[in-house]
Specification:
The chain has strands spanning 10-12, 18-21, 39-45, 52-59, 62-63, 67-73, 78-82, 88-93, 100-107, 110-111, 115-121, 126-131, 134-140, 147-153, 162-168, 174-177, 183-189, 196-203, 209-210, 214-220, 225-229, 235-240, 248-253, 265-266, 276-281, 284-290, 297-303, 312-318, 324-328. With 331 residues, it is mostly beta strands. The protein has one domain: Neuraminidase (6 Propeller). The strands form 7 sheets. Strands 3, 4, 5, 6 and 29 form a 5-stranded antiparallel β-sheet that branches. β27 (297-303) and β28 (312-318) form a beta hairpin. The radius of gyration is 18 Å and the shape is globular. The model is unreliable at 1-13 and 16-36 (pLDDT under 50).
Length: 331
């Protein structure tokens, strides 16, 4: 059953349901299911010279033929997430010269007309994560603004953008929830000249307290970080290496040690010039990425909690930036 959208005075417990009524300015954003089976979708900017946004999904026979998202265009980052309102949501930075963040929804196989997210601007694009009845969006600011911003979407209304305290980045951040735990985990690359990976958490509700940013030991990137949770509660982080290192690295954080990350490891056989994306589906996790410099094919692999499958190309998919992957039970 489709649930009625929240009113302006609804406060959500992060990752879950309603806590109390206190006057929020609105309601709002997205990023993929981490604890339920469904359809796995791919979303990406086209190759060099193509600013259209393309999409497909994984069926029993493999990835479907790519299709264009009507009216959507970007010069950089895209994001997608399922919501608990019988839809999947996509967000993206506009085309060259347009730093506004746009959004639309996928309902019963059809995309809605793109709309602007009020007050949201980025030079690289956003990230999304499902929360309660809607989703949370995180993004780097526009040109000259390396602050990390966030807001919330309830399938109808976006809240006013807020700055994440103490966080700054030159790329897009990443966000995830452990299943059933109302704590938002966020990871990001540092500012220009800082290739360390940082992380922080928001606990309790949308008006909760952010923890002080901390460095992920041994992890460094020149581009994108991705974050998602397995059904057992393990958080998985994946990223491109530092400048000159196009390998994809990964680490885990276990529920029993939520403040610790395992030693970084290389995902065998992978390479990227922009960074990967992660989304869990059932007991596995999908990862997609653009190839190394000069390779605009989109690749993917599956993680079972221990091992990664051999990388494969997604037929017909090409991009000059980082693709997105998301899971939603809705179609």
């Amino acid at each position: 059953m489709i649930q009625k959208p929240l009113t302006r005075r609804t406060v959500l417990r992060l990752g879950g349901g309603i806590v109390s009524a206190v006057g929020l300015a609105a309601v709002a954003p997205s990023v993929a299911f981490a604890d339920t089976s469904g359809y796995t979708f791919g979303l990406w900017k086209g190759g060099s010279g193509d600013q259209r946004i393309w999409w497909n999904f994984f069926d029993t026979g493999g990835w479907t033929t790519p299709q264009v998202v009507p009216g959507a265009g970007t010069s950089a980052g895209v994001a997608m997430a399922g919501t608990n309102q019988a839809m999947a949501v996509a967000t993206w930075k506009g085309v060259t010269g347009d730093e506004r963040i746009w959004w639309n929804s996928l309902v019963t196989g059809s995309w809605s007309t793109p709309q602007v997210v009020p007050g949201a601007n980025s030079s690289v694009g956003p990230a999304l994560v499902t929360s309660g009845l809607g989703a949370i969006m995180m993004w780097k600011g526009g040109s000259g603004d390396q602050r990390v911003w966030w807001n919330y979407f309830d399938s109808a209304v976006w809240t006013s953008p807020q700055v994440m305290p103490g966080a700054a980045t030159s790329f897009a951040p990443a966000a995830a929830f452990r299943p059933g735990v109302p704590v938002l985990h966020v990871a990001w690359k540092g500012v220009d000249g800082d290739q360390r990976i940082w992380w922080s958490t928001l606990s309790g509700s949308l008006s909760g307290t952010w923890s002080s940013p901390q460095v992920v030991p041994g992890a460094g990137t020149s581009a994108g970080v991705s974050l998602a949770a397995m059904p057992n509660g393990n958080l998985v982080m994946a990223w491109k290496g530092v400048t000159g290192d196009q390998q994809i690295w990964w680490s885990q954080s276990y529920p029993g040690s939520p403040g610790s990350w395992t030693a970084p490891q290389v995902v065998p056989g992978t390479g990227t010039g922009t960074g990967p994306s992660l989304a869990a589906n059932g007991n596995a996790m999908a990862m997609t990425w653009k190839g190394v410099d000069g390779d605009e094919r989109v690749w993917w692999s599956r993680f079972d909690g221990t091992n990664w499958t051999a990388p494969q190309v997604i037929a017909g998919a090409g991009t000059s930036f980082r693709p997105a992957v998301a899971t939603s039970p809705w179609w």
